[in-house]
Amino acid sequence: MHPEKVQQAIQKLQNNLPASASVTLQAGLDPDGTHPGQVLVKLSDKVTKQTFFEYYVPAEQVVKSAETGDALQPGSLMNTKA
């Protein structure tokens, strides 16, 4: 999986998050290399900056979600991981 393709998919999913949402989605390739080929997803409150949860998702799943045009709902990527 090419990092550029994954990064484009992440950006597309972030852009699909409704502007009215009270949460912020942060996603990026595994920053420390302990989960190769996976994307770290973090969901936090816009106001308090409190992190609700963080989890790793296979990069292929992020790209698939972006390609299908599914609206990003909190937990949707995690549901498909299980």
Order of helical and strand elements? HEEEHH
Radius of gyration: 12 Å
The overall pLDDT average reads 75
Total of domains: 1
Strand order of the largest sheet: 1-2-3
**What is the CATH class name?**
Alpha Beta
In total, the number of strands is 3
Q: What is the CATH fold-level name?
A: Double Stranded RNA Binding Domain
Oligomer: single chain
Helix content: 25-40%
CATH architecture: 2-Layer Sandwich
Instruction: Work out the strand percent.
Output: 25-35%
Structural class: alpha+beta
The backbone outline, from C-alpha atoms, is: flat
Distance between termini?
21 Å
Low-confidence stretches: none
Total DSSP helices: 3
**Largest sheet descriptor:** 3 strands, antiparallel
Protein described:
The protein is of the alpha+beta class. It has one domain (3-78): Double Stranded RNA Binding Domain (2-Layer Sandwich). Helices cover 37% and strands 28% of the residues. It has 3 helices and 3 strands, in the order H-E-E-E-H-H. The chain has a 3-stranded antiparallel beta sheet with strand order 1-2-3. Helix 1 (3-16) packs across helix 2. It is flat, with a radius of gyration of 12 Å. 18% of the residues are buried. The model has no long low-confidence stretch (mean pLDDT 75).
Topology:
Elements: H1 3-16, E1 23-29, E2 38-45, E3 51-58, H2 59-68, H3 76-81
Antiparallel strand pairs: 1-2, 2-3
What keyword list fits this structure?
flat; alpha+beta; 82 residues; Double Stranded RNA Binding Domain; 3 helices; 3-stranded antiparallel β-sheet
